[in-house]
Design brief:
The two termini are about 30 Å apart. The chain is mainly α. The radius of gyration is 18 Å and the shape is globular. The longest helix is centred in the C-terminal third of the chain and has 16 residues. The protein has two domains: about 90 residues, Endonuclease Iii, domain 2, CATH 1.10.1670.40; about 100 residues, Endonuclease III, domain 1 (Orthogonal Bundle). The protein is built from 13 helices and no strands. Helix 1 crosses helix 2 and helix 8 packs across helix 9.
Length: about 220
């Protein structure tokens, strides 16, 4: 299966294609403009931030990540493995996330996971490789594929903000199933990643959320 990516040159044209297909997405762009092209480098440091973002607010995750960066500078496997439990807890890592970050660091250090090789692999292969690591599940893989590898057709229903935005924009009932939500998103293939970014944009704008830092800059 062909690998498709978005980039600076095709991101807004894809947004326009989606707007032409769907009046609700068109309305978001009309009211709020194009969404940011949220990307991150395909690095160990980015994966650590995704781990910190699991099941917490962006503000909490960024606070922990910034604390870690103050202590270590650019985050590497060696630096993570040198930190004690006490030092990681002082960076707001939970006990579970200490384990997850260390398992990831060990896998990269021992070359059981070679991140640069994921760039040219199909989504299913990337998912298989990353999910070998304790603490990395489907949501983390989805957002890594979206933001770091810039794949065009992910729709992470493990993301609460995305689910809530989809329900609001499409006026869906509160107890809709994941299967039903995927049917709603089906017409947006092969650009569901960009549709998700438009929906995140609506969610952020509606609530007046001020992001601590642009995702692409906080890990740069």
């Amino acid at each position: 299966m062909k690998i498709t990516n978005f980039n600076k040159s095709n991101f807004q044209p894809i947004c326009r294609k989606l707007a032409a297909l769907d009046k609700d997405l068109a309305g978001i762009i009309s009211r709020h403009g194009y969404p940011p092209m949220w990307t991150r480098p395909a690095t160990f440091q980015s994966l650590v931030l995704f781990i910190l973002e699991q099941q917490v607010s962006l503000a909490s995750a960024y606070a922990a990540f910034n604390k870690l960066r103050e202590k270590t500078g650019f985050v590497t496997p060696d630096k993570i493995l040198l930190l004690t439990d006490t030092e990681l807890k002082s960076c707001y890592f939970s006990r579970q996330k200490i384990i997850y970050a260390r398992e990831l660091a060990k896998a990269v250090k021992k070359r059981k996971l070679i991140l640069k090789t994921l760039v040219n692999k199909h989504e299913n292969e990337v998912r298989h490789e990353l999910k070998k690591i304790k603490g990395i599940g489907d949501w983390t893989v989805d957002v890594y594929l979206m933001h770091c590898l810039q794949r065009t057709d992910l729709f992470p229903l493990g993301d609460i903000a995305l689910v809530n935005s989809l329900k609001e924009v499409k006026q869906l009932h509160m107890h809709i199933t994941k299967e039903e939500m995927l049917k709603v998103a089906e017409p947006w293939r092969p650009y569901r990643t960009i549709a998700a970014m438009i929906l995140w944009h609506a969610y952020i704008q509606k609530r007046g959320i001020k992001l601590v830092s642009c995702q692409s800059k906080i890990v740069g």
